[in-house]
Design brief:
It is a single chain. Helices cover 49% and strands 16% of the residues. It has 264 residues and is α/β, with parallel strands linked by helices. A 7-stranded mixed β-sheet has the order 1-2-3-4-5-7-10, with helices on both faces. The protein has a 3-stranded mixed β-sheet with strand order 6-8-9. Strand 2 and strand 3 (16-21) form a beta hairpin. The protein is globular, with a radius of gyration of 19 Å. The two termini are 25 Å apart. Bound molecules: coenzyme A. Coenzyme A is lined by residues 26-27, 29, 65-70, 111, 113-115, 137-138, 141.
């Protein structure tokens, strides 16, 4: 199935939903129309049982230069709150990504700034090309990140580095992002498609219910204290013993063959 929106391209094929931010002349800046379409596409991918993996990228060699700065000219605090509550990354888009029971992979090349970076950080895994340029430049606009940047980056890189990134607003390379743990892997641009395909194929080869539980358990680690997180992990672990795939996984191991997953 191919569904074209105005500001993004959404396709579903062979268990993979691909969402491409598509406004290259503005470096895929996250305009409100694009955010609405992104919300619709993410919701569709989340609820479609045929979709097993979601891939999010940008058209024209860049991921996204972030929120639409033009719109900010006239905003009041009330506008900011209302709009970000309805269409913001931290309150809405990342919640759909976090709660969907399948992996979401961000594929980053070129500029990945501000809200674009926050969107990539909301995904489960991030693959970057060597040319990717990251940054949270909001302070240079008299702002701070408002799509989860301060909270996510602090959890990944720790206080000192987070303050450096958020207070100085400087751009940094894909290599630096990888060193700080902000992306999973960095590959030469010409290897990006092949790397993403291998990663997606790898994810598609996993038992879907266990994959969803793995995502939920790690998400819980970011939301709760250790005791509550350990309880969540144990409950998820135990729940998997009710699945056919768990029995198949154990049986296939003992019979020295590849498991055949049923997704239940
Ligand atoms: N919001 C709205 N428009 C944006 C944009 C954004 N975040 N980022 C880029 N654009 C627009 C520019 O206004 C310009 O529009 P125009 O052709 O109508 O003049 C067009 O995209 C090209 O951008 P330009 O700055 O001329 O290109 P460049 O190659 O010199 O620089 C960037 C590219 C990405 C480094 C630069 O555009 C930039 O810094 N963007 C803003 C990044 C940012 O601060 N994001 C956080 C937002 S809170």
């Amino acid at each position: 199935m191919n569904t074209s929106f105005n500001k993004l391209v959404y396709t579903k094929e062979n268990g993979i939903a691909a969402i491409v931010l598509n406004n290259p002349s503005k470096y895929n800046a996250l305009e409100l129309d694009m955010r609405k379409e992104l919300k619709t596409a993410l919701e569709d991918a989340a609820k479609d049982p045929a979709v097993r993996v979601v891939v999010l990228k940008g058209a024209g060699g860049n991921f996204s230069a972030g929120a639409d700065i033009r719109a900010f000219l006239e905003w009041t605090p009330e506008d900011a709150l209302r709009t970000w509550n309805e269409l913001g990354t931290s309150m809405v888009l990342s919640a759909i990504i976090r709660n969907m029971r399948k992996p979401v992979v961000a594929v980053v090349e070129g500029y990945c700034l501000g809200g674009g970076f926050e969107l990539a950080l909301s995904c489960d895994l991030v693959v970057a090309a060597e040319d990717a340029v990251f940054g949270l430049p909001e302070v240079n606009l008299g702002l701070i990140p408002g799509g989860g940047g301060t909270q996510r980056v602090s959890r990944i890189v720790g206080e000192k580095k987070a303050k450096q990134l958020v207070m100085l607003g400087e751009r940094f390379s894909a290599a630096a992002a990888e060193k700080m743990g902000l992306v999973n892997m960095v590959v030469p641009k010409e290897k990006l498609d092949e790397t993403v395909k291998n990663l997606v194929d790898n994810l598609l080869s996993k038992p879907p219910v266990a994959l969803a539980a793995a995502k939920e358990a790690v998400n819980a680690a970011l939301e709760t204290g250790l005791s509550a997180g350990l309880r969540t992990e144990l409950n998820l672990f135990a729940s998997l013993f009710a699945t056919e795939d768990q029995k198949e996984g154990a049986r296939a191991f003992l019979e020295k063959r590849k498991p055949v997953w049923k997704g239940r």
